[in-house]
Design goal:
This protein has 1024 residues and is of the alpha+beta class. Helices cover 34% and strands 20% of the residues. It starts with a helix and ends with a helix.
Length: 1024
């Protein structure tokens, strides 16, 4: 080596590179201008010879070996930089011409580094990872990774024999970002990062920002160009940005792609199983899945995590490749096709996403550069003891930037319509799933993870700021407030929240035997107390059909599958009627019996049996109804969109409610019976006067039931029920949900007027006929009102008025309807006071029903229609009177009709008076009954006082007896003292003792005297 070249060598730097401990290889390798010329250096360990070739002139300059480890150098006599290539001859005799990786500058700007260090570089995925690109006209792959505490980072792979000395990366300042452009690499190359820790230990790590990865069990990252796919879903994306999802239908089908449908494992030539052959490709499964979703009527699919994960049993919830769709089902381009195809079929796609924790796999992000880069160092903050996973350090800008950019990445690069965030509760609480001593309080001493809260607010603000219609959904299982509230008002900023409380309460309720459901009625109604506190999605998710919980039909009570199916149909019907968007896990829409297993396909063969096919048909019908009627979704998050009719039928296990829009005619009435008891002629309050038609019953024969209980339209009556002015009478099937449309009376009246206008003739005769019809209607209506009340007098008056109406030519009932209606002229028995009402109807004894008397001829030669209250000309007329007589006759007829109308009004007035009298009589009876009760109570009170007085007297007597005994005891003591005194007199020697005894005796007498005095006073008191 020439002295000049030798003097230019940085021998310490060369040693650092040879031992792969440097973080700035570009400072030594590549081209460098010196006073002596252009110095080019390279480190290629297996090279036998290297020559520098100047691109512009083609001149070649052999390089000299400076270190036997493969470090070469050449001094080219020129004073400017020049493009060049290296011609390398390897030790196996092969020769290759390559571009020098160390002749290219960094692709990061100072602004990029500044934004990343602040945690606000939302497009960092365009820089981090492996990106095919062209630099200075040369194609290659640009690598960059964040490893802030690494001693050295190298790109390794098949292309460099996995030797960390060949492609060491450059550290950009103090950003912690290492980067390198390697010319000549193409998509499909596998790679990892070799990271040498500050302890000198090398590790192989997959790229956290990689766009593709090897199929498990292999763990290397794969270079991929995700910018090549040509999207064809512009119409969908434009429509999505304009649509308001909150007021639209959202029925989600939750899917695990690996087990929705599955192939048989293939074998290779040696008879070994081919890894991954059991999975359908993204492109293969797109068509069948879209067809099924459209057939069933769902609006969206939600995919359980498709991000790369090493363990099938984790279902994708322990992610190692956040920016890579899993290679189990194909390439990134295949997944883009899947998303594109779904959109072109009119189906939205929501992706499950897991920012709460990540696994400890050695090739993943755990202890990424030898230190805790993504997780907390303190295991009390950085680990889930029960899940065995690590918790993100949300307060570190590089970590929050990684996660926020990742959510944006799936919406941007893969056109995701929504991100469903898993395990949000575990992020919000520092003590989630931990025992005392396993967690560290926040700075205020609480258990709230303040850094996670700030992260979620930051994410939602940026994500929703894009305004492209994509949404954020939280799986949050606690009562954390304002999850879907605005961040500027203290909320977390999600668009929707899974209603886990409803799911748990309602499934617990449905698990109960119908006999005992009345004891758990609160679990059925409690959700409406908080239904409008968040924007909820009602879910029967995968969490409910695993880990021994059983499938949805498996949770239902019943001696056989048919009884279980009956319960399941009722559960699904209630779910679709309850406010909130909907989600159902795959397989549960045809009542798969076994629990879900990620290693097996769904049991599609069950659809060959009637019960499972009928459940599937039922779900189709529910989804069709859901999408057709705005009342089921338009006001999900507005309290005005829901009205309780009755939520107090605890003993009957029933609830009744109405779903509404701003248009009354779009209202739907839901009658839900969760008991095995049927109810005939069951009266239900309704929101307004009108017609009510059953449009779906879970008990319909086509769904496996005994038949829809209400085939005819129900017309409401002015009979107060459930605190409402109007009510209808229906049949309620056991264990069923019935849905009714509600058509206000106003619309049919207009229709009748229009129809009547066409058939009327000009003149007063038509007006008189109309008046007579109204009189008949009034009488019939009065009779109907009398039927529903427990007032025999009123009912009798109504019955009497019916034949009178018949005699005067008025119809017994003047009902017209475009659809068949119940109860034309039936006079029913009075309703009982019990709930639910179960009264049998009986026909009126006075005259036949209107339907039995179709037509009669009146005095004017008209055929009278007894059912409709209308008149029509007779078929034949013998003579035609002159105009004057006709006019006089018409006038007379009009007066008679007027008189009839007056009579009808008087009858109605009498009926009302009778009702009032009966009401007053009932009130008087009630008052009399209350008075009798009051007297009885007063008598009992007097007796109680007497007893109490006797008890007090007994206590006083007992007290006196005790006092007497005490006095007697003291008297006995005094006598003993007196006896001692007598003895003292006999013994002169004890004179002094006797005197003392005599003194004591005197004292005792005084005490006896004092004691006697209170006793006399007590006796006087007793006498008083």
């Amino acid at each position: 080596m020439e002295q000049t070249l030798y003097d230019l060598m940085d021998w310490a730097g060369i040693e650092e590179l040879v031992y792969s401990e440097g973080n700035n290889p570009h400072g030594l390798l590549g081209p460098h201008l010196t006073d002596s010329g252009l110095l080019v250096q390279a480190l290629i360990p297996t090279a036998q010879a290297i020559t520098v070739k100047i691109t512009s002139t083609g001149r070649k300059y052999p390089m000299e070996l400076a270190d036997e480890a493969g470090f070469y150098a050449a001094l080219i006599p020129r004073k400017s930089m020049a493009a060049y290539t290296l011609i390398v001859t390897y030790d196996n005799g092969s020769t290759e011409e390559i571009h020098d990786p160390y002749s290219y500058g960094p692709q990061y700007t100072d602004e990029d580094l500044k934004k990343f260090n602040a945690g606000i570089h939302y497009g960092i995925y365009e820089k981090m990872g492996a990106h095919p690109m062209t630099v200075k006209g040369v194609e290659g792959v640009y690598f960059s990774v964040w490893a802030p505490c690494a001693m050295r980072v190298s790109v390794v792979g098949d292309f460099n024999l996995w030797d960390g000395r060949r492609h060491p990366m450059r550290l950009l300042g103090d950003s912690g970002i290492f980067e390198l452009f390697i010319p000549g690499l193409k998509p499909g190359q596998i790679y990892k990062y070799e990271i040498k820790t500050k302890a000198g230990l090398p590790m192989l790590k997959a790229d956290p920002y990689a766009n593709y990865a090897e199929l498990r069990p292999d763990t290397a990252s794969v270079v991929w160009d995700i910018g090549r796919y040509q999207w064809q879903d512009r119409d969908w994306m434009e429509k999505r940005a304009k649509d308001e999802l909150f007021t639209g239908p959202v029925s989600i089908y939750e899917v695990h792609l690996g087990s929705w449908k599955r192939k048989e494992l293939e074998l290779d030539a040696e008879g070994k199983e081919i890894t991954g052959s059991e999975f359908y490709n993204y492109r293969e499964i797109a068509g069948p899945l879209a067809d099924y979703v459209k057939e069933m009527g769902y609006t969206h699919v939600e995919l359980m995590p498709v991000m790369e994960h090493p363990l099938d049993a984790s279902w994708g919830y322990q992610v190692t490749g956040y920016y890579a769709p899993t290679s189990r089902y194909g390439t990134p381009d295949d997944f883009m096709y899947f998303m594109d195809y779904m959109h072109r079929q009119g189906i939205g796609v929501i992706l499950d996403w897991v920012p709460a924790h990540f696994p400890r796999d050695a090739h993943g992000m755990a202890c990424f550069d030898g230190t805790c880069v993504y997780e907390h160092k303190d295991p009390r903050q950085g680990a889930h003891p029960h899940w065995g996973t690590l918790i993100y350090n949300y307060g570190r800008p590089g970590v929050s930037n990684f996660l926020i950019a990742n959510a944006l990445f799936w919406a941007d690069k893969y056109h995701a319509d929504g991100i469903r965030m898993d395990a949000v509760a575990s992020m919000l609480y520092l003590d989630y799933g931990k025992n005392d001593g396993e967690w560290v309080p926040n700075i205020y001493g609480g258990n709230e993870n303040l850094e996670a809260v700030e992260f979620l607010k930051h994410l939602s603000s940026v994500f929703k700021g894009r305004k492209d219609g994509a949404v954020l959904i939280a799986e949050e299982s606690t009562a954390w407030p304002m999850v879907t509230g605005e961040p500027k008002k203290g909320g977390l900023g999600f668009d929707f929240k899974w209603n886990m409380g409803w799911m748990n309460d309602f499934t617990n309720y449905m698990r109960c035997d119908p006999l005992f459901r009345k004891n758990n009625y609160g679990e059925l109604t409690f959700s409406m107390l908080y239904a409008y506190s968040e924007n909820f999605i009602l879910v029967f998710s995968h969490d409910e059909v695993v880990h021994g919980k059983g499938s949805m039909i498996g949770k239902m009570p019943g001696a056989d599958l048919e009884q279980k199916a009956e319960n399941l149909r009722a559960a699904y019907g209630f779910m679709m009627g309850h406010p909130g968007k909907k989600l159902l896990f795959m397989g549960q829409d045809f009542a798969q019996v076994r629990e879900w297993n990620e290693n097996a396909s769904l049991d599609w063969e069950l659809l060959e049996t009637d019960t499972h096919r009928q459940i599937q048909d039922y779900m189709k019908a529910l989804n069709e109804l859901y999408r057709k009627y705005p009342a089921m979704y338009a006001m999900d998050y507005d309290p005005e969109g829901f009205q309780w009719i009755n939520c107090s039928y605890q003993q009957e296990s029933m609830i009744i409610f109405v779903r509404k829009t701003k248009k009354p005619e779009e209202s739907l009435l839901f009658v839900c019976n969760f008991d095995n008891m049927a109810h005939e002629k069951f009266r239900v309050g309704v929101p307004f006067e009108g017609k009510y038609k059953e449009i779906l019953s879970s008990n319909a024969a086509e769904f496996g039931g005994s038949g829809a209980p209400n085939p005819r339209v129900k017309t409401s009556r002015k009979l107060e029920w459930d605190d409402l002015e109007n009510s209808i009478e229906i049949n309620v099937a056991p264990m069923s949900v019935s849905i009714f449309t509600c058509t206000p009376e106003a619309a049919p009246k207009k229709a009748r007027k229009a129809e009547t206008g066409k058939t009327k003739k000009a003149g007063t005769r038509a007006e008189a006929g109309t008046a007579a019809g109204k009189a008949g209607k009034a009488a019939a209506k009065a009779a109907d009102q009398a039927e529903g009340e427990k007032k025999p007098g009123a009912a009798g008056a109504a019955v009497k008025s019916a034949p009178k109406a018949a005699k005067t030519g008025k119809p017994a009932a003047a009902k017209t309807a475009q659809e068949p209606v119940d109860g034309a002229v039936k006079v029913e028995k009075p309703a009982t006071a019990e709930k639910p009402k179960k009264a049998a109807a009986s026909k009126a004894k006075a005259g036949e029903p209107a339907a039995a008397r179709p037509e009669t001829v009146n005095a004017e030669g008209k055929l009278h229609d007894a059912a409709g209250g209308q008149e029509k000309p007779a078929i034949e007329k013998v003579t035609k009177p002159d105009a004057a007589k006709e006019g006089q006759k018409r006038l007379t007829t009009a007066k008679e009709e007027q008189k009839k109308l007056t009579t009808a009004k008087e009858e109605q007035k009498k009926l009302s008076t009778a009702k009032e009298e009966q009401k007053k009589l009932s009130t008087a009876k009630e008052e009399q009954k209350k008075l009798s009760t009051a007297k009885e109570e007063q008598k009992k009170l007097s007796t109680a006082k007497e007893e109490q007085k006797k008890l007090s007297t007994a206590k006083e007597e007992q007290k006196k007896l005790s006092t007497a005994k005490e006095e007697q005891k003291k008297l006995s003591t005094a006598k003993e003292e007196q006896k001692k005194l007598s003895t003292a007199k006999k013994e002169p020697k004890k004179l002094s003792t006797a005197k003392r005894a005599q003194k004591k005796l005197a004292t005792v007498k005084e005490e006896l005297k004092k004691l006697a005095a209170p006793k006399e006073e007590n006796d006087k008191d007793s006498q008083d």
